[in-house]
Amino acid sequence: MNLSGCTRRKRFWLSAASIALVSPAAAGAQDMATDEEARERGQRGDIVVTGTSLEREEASEPLPVQVLAGDELAHRRQGGLGETLAGLPGVHLDSFGGGASRPVIRGQTVPRIEILTDGANLFDASSVSPDHAIAADPLLLDAIEIQRGPATVRYGGNALNGAVNLIDSKVPKAVPQGGYTGATEVRYGTGDEEKTVVGRVTAGIGSFAVHAEGSRHVAEDYDVPDAYGSDRLKDSYAKGSSYSFGASWVTEKGYIGAAYTRQDSEYGLPGHSHANAPCHTHGLDLHCGSHGTPPPLVSAPDDHTAYIDLRSERFDIRADYDRLLPGLEHTRLRLSYTDYMHEEMDGAFLFARYGNEVYDGRLELTHAPLLGFTGTFGVQYTDGTFSGLNVNDVYRGYDSIYDMKTENVGLFLTERRAFGPVDVELGVRQDWRTMHAVKKHWTSYYILPPGFELTPEIEEMYSGFYDDYFASNYPPSEPNPFSVSASATWNIDAGYSLGLTLARSQRAPNVRELYARGNNLATNSYEVGLARTATISDELPAPVTDLVETNKSVDLTFRKTDGRTRFELGAFYQDVDDYIFARLIEEERETGRPHLLLVYTAADARFFGIDGQISHQLAPGSLVTLFGDYVDAELKSEDDNLPRIPPGRLGARYEWTSGPVSADVEYYHTFKQDRVASYETPTGGYDMLNATLAYRFDVGGGKSVELYARGTNLTNELAYVHTSFVKDQSPLRGRSVAIGMRHSF
């Protein structure tokens, strides 16, 4: 994309043929095939487009890939991944204060989008509840790729609405020229008194490269417009740190390396109340009063802070090699071990503790052209242990009485070939998943009184009760989701192309959708999973464990990639059998705070939407862009709407560059959402105005310093996002200006 003077500020919306493995800008770890000019740019700290990262094959993709990188990423970064990406065409956010935000792509968030780190799955607890942050630090990313739609079949059914690939430098891919390269950044935000510092360096000698990076940020409760009733949003603070150390052995054919990453975070939960902690069910009746002595949380004051204390440790082994064996064009290996844990604190009380320990391995083999086809065969194995579901256990005086064990084997294959001007791609993936509860000893559930004599007869009796309890409450789940896609791209003259994808994707329900039975205070609800309906009432649908959500979709993309005017326009239609959602059974207001009884249910649904952008280069260094998106969702056989579907949006952006100075201004309008689920209320529309001004100093020797200021919500609009579970308690940030300095060397 030739934008002349705009080349330092880039938002790419390109076919995957032109998207490349984005080199670590600050670390200078360039791809093996990078030319000399790209190396020089990399040492200056610019993002370099060098070769595909989600795909290494050469044919074009029928679906778009967005890449947020370079200055654009540095200026837009905020505490959460959702806030960082919000505003891109087709991307909204699921907001939960300043510490947790998830991207919403084409109307859906996790678990219907997959979060990746350099092509490997990122494991945390974000798919279980919206107050659980995605365990990734945007401050340490070189680029974020968003591939939407069913072309992401190689990542399984959880990527049916898109894959977000987080590109980082923690495993160096090359030895930096000159022996070392790095970057530092400091910034201050006015709206939340944000104070951030980031640093990283890559050094090498001979065939070896080492990398170290770290970040620290502290932000207070953020400002909101006075119309909210307060000038700050209580408990919206966030603070945390992240660091990583990695090393690689680099050869002419590729690299193999490893890295250790540690992330710690603490953030508040706006609108949280423990008043409904004792809520429980009597059949289909939700009762929010306690029987007998209330637990400590009920009698505690309700004005203290509820917050999450998060820790994530991860070990990665990564390797990419070209022509490792005869017949293999490329070999990619991704191995990881993740140890994730967070505690949900309600003042001084521990209400919940979640953990996720996962071993994951992924091998991809790209074969040489065979009968005109080039393709990739892959296998993935995942072994995970999740703990902490049904959070009532902790405040009753003991920890989780079981762990959920998941094993998954996946095989996938993609093949592509060009037939004249038409590129064809076929993809298929088969998964075999087992999920079951791993019981702890029965005394973790039945608490014995002091001095109680445990005889063999009592041991046998209570052990039998315990076995029966698990057999009825946690039956094993063994679904085998299967996904397949076929796509074609017609490359028309003058840079025009037309892409069509047909896909059938299947997704297995996650642990909460299957086995929930308890209070989720973050969403003000008591939730019941698909496999536990019989424990509530015979009036509910019969329990199911092997249900799969089946999405049949059509994606159409029309693009123009040459000339002064370029565009990318997409339309999609999804027909979903057994769409899993939380159905409202009852709303209880016994405590004065509404609490919902929600039962996970499968019903047929339909999605339709359009998104895209059109850019026109007015002059060298002057670019104007129009963008927008719209999603329409419907429950086909239910007299209700799906919850938290984002409204339509239209916007415009102007970017200007002259020498060392660059600037942009962005405005968009988010429309009112009045097609709401039975337990939702309509959400009003809002306007958003953002702007950036930056100046770069060249200090010689491949070094540079940039000063920038980015203002968000400059009109100080009171804005609520319909996609949020706590929209009324957690409006978006008010007016704020982030001032920063970046140094690349």
Automatic annotation (TrEMBL):
InterPro entries: Beta-barrel_TonB (IPR000531), Beta-barrel_TonB_sf (IPR036942), Plug_dom (IPR012910), Plug_dom_sf (IPR037066), TonB-dep_rcpt-like (IPR039426). Residues 303-714 form the TonB-dependent receptor-like beta-barrel domain. One of its GO terms (cellular component) is cell outer membrane. Coiled coil: none annotated. Gene3D superfamilies: TonB-dependent receptor, beta-barrel domain (2.40.170.20), TonB-dependent receptor, plug domain (2.170.130.10). One of its GO terms (biological process) is siderophore transmembrane transport. Residues 60-163 form the TonB-dependent receptor plug domain. Residues 1-29 form the signal peptide. It holds the Pfam family TonB_dep_Rec_b-barrel. Belongs to the TonB-dependent receptor family. This is TonB-dependent receptor.
